[in-house]
Design brief:
Blueprint: E1 2-12, E2 16-19, H1 20-24, H2 31-38, E3 42-45, H3 52-67, E4 76-80, H4 91-99, E5 106-110, H5 116-129, E6 135-143, H6 153-156, E7 161-172, E8 182-190, E9 198-200, E10 213-215, H7 217-239, E11 248-251, H8 256-266, H9 277-280, H10 287-297, E12 306-313, E13 317-324
Parallel strand pairs: 4-5, 4-6, 11-12
Antiparallel strand pairs: 1-7, 2-3, 6-7, 8-13, 9-10, 12-13
Helix pairs in contact: 3-4, 7-8
The structure holds coenzyme A.
Length: 325
């Protein structure tokens, strides 16, 4: 049987850092309020003229180098983003050009907002398991600073920009099941009836622009906890694992209070959860691969662990995946 294994990970943040004190000069807020309600201390945002495909390509180059392969071996690029550089071509095509991979088999974007990375990972896993890809590059990147309303203090404090990338490779496991690593299971969900709780005020085919983020914060808060914990339970059941077999949980980094509530609901020790929201804020589709990269660098993610990813975002979309490393 062919499985998708994680070969390399990389991430890239813009150099411009916006602290809570910087924001307090722009809107009526304070470092104390933001830290208490969200755990966020700072976020990174694109400099004028900087483009998201450049950030994504930097993250991808690191992931490819860590995977020990050449960019030319990549035959699939999936970019999860809600803030594409252009309406078309896709950000994936722009990343492909920057990597100089040549004619890779397929390159496309997907939009599942903050759940985008889990969706993209699951799609890449399917391509690999069905023999359509040998080496897949999965990227989560977003420039949320371009779609927040900088006059709305209830949303502008939450988001940041960033990119994270992961290289998946096909590996055949014929005999010893116990040695099997890679993507074990994934579950994806969407409930369009909830679309109004987190949306943009426009779009290319209506207002001819992206619009800005409009959010019912309390409702999103409640649903995030409910959906992410439910998705983890469902994916664990699909994988045949119990909660105490989770070694590392990487939830979408929306708000420290949401993360803690998810861990509590699952009965999981918070020390098993990666929390980068204080340093990088919510970078939408990029939070999970950025947090994975952080976990590797800090020695939190090691061999023979069960890593569980979960996310919830606009749509409303949500999902989870179990990966054995
Ligand atoms: N600074 C200071 N005060 C603020 C503020 C800010 N940045 N943002 C909102 N407030 C005010 C509100 O205006 C309100 O004032 P009022 O009582 O005078 O009307 C007060 O704080 C309480 O607002 P409320 O919305 O009830 O706060 P909250 O405790 O629910 O926290 C969020 C607000 C946005 C932090 C919280 O709802 C949240 O995190 N939701 C999820 C958001 C999210 O993660 N979105 C992305 C998901 S992918």
């Amino acid at each position: 049987m062919i499985n998708s294994i994680i070969l390399g990970v990389g991430s890239k943040l813009p150099s411009k850092c916006l602290t809570n004190d910087c924001l307090a000069k722009m809107v009526d807020t304070s470092d104390e309020w933001i830290v208490q309600r969200t755990g966020i201390r700072q976020r990174y945002v694109l400099e004028p003229g900087q483009v998201i495909s450049a950030l994504a390509a930097e993250a991808a180059k690191t992931a490819i180098s860590n995977a020990g392969i050449s960019a030319h071996e990549i035959d699939l690029i999936i970019v999860a983003t809600t803030t594409p550089e252009k309406t078309f071509p896709s950000t994936a095509a722009l990343v492909q050009e920057k990597l100089g991979t040549g004619n890779c088999a397929a390159a496309f974007d997907i939009n599942a907002v903050c759940s985008g990375f889990v969706y993209a990972l699951s799609i890449a896993d399917s391509f690999i398991k069905t023999g359509q890809s040998q080496y897949a590059l999965v990227i989560g990147c977003d420039a949320m600073s371009k779609i927040v309303d900088w006059n709305d203090r209830s949303t502008c404090v939450l988001f940041g920009d960033g990119a994270g990338a992961m290289v998946l490779g096909a590996k055949r496991f014929d005999t010893d099941e116990s040695e099997k690593v890679g993507v074990v299971a994934a579950r994806l969900f969407c409930d369009g009836k909830l679309s109004k709780i987190l949306e943009t005020s426009g779009g290319t085919s209506t207002t001819c622009n992206s619009g800005v983020i409009v959010m019912n914060g309390r409702e999103v808060f409640k649903r995030s906890i409910e959906k992410m914990s439910m998705a983890v339970q469902m994916v664990l059941s699909k994988a045949g694992l119990a909660t105490d077999q989770i070694d590392v949980l990487i939830p979408h980094q929306a708000n420290a209070r949401i993360l803690n509530a998810v861990a509590e609901r699952l009965g999981l020790d918070k020390s098993k959860m990666i929390d980068t929201v204080g340093d990088f804020a919510n970078t939408s589709a990029a939070t999970i691969p950025i947090a994975w990269d952080y976990g590797l660098k800090k020695g939190i993610i090691r061999k023979n662990q069960n890593i569980v990813l979960t996310a919830m975002g606009g749509g409303v979309t949500w999902g989870a995946a179990v990966i054995r490393v």
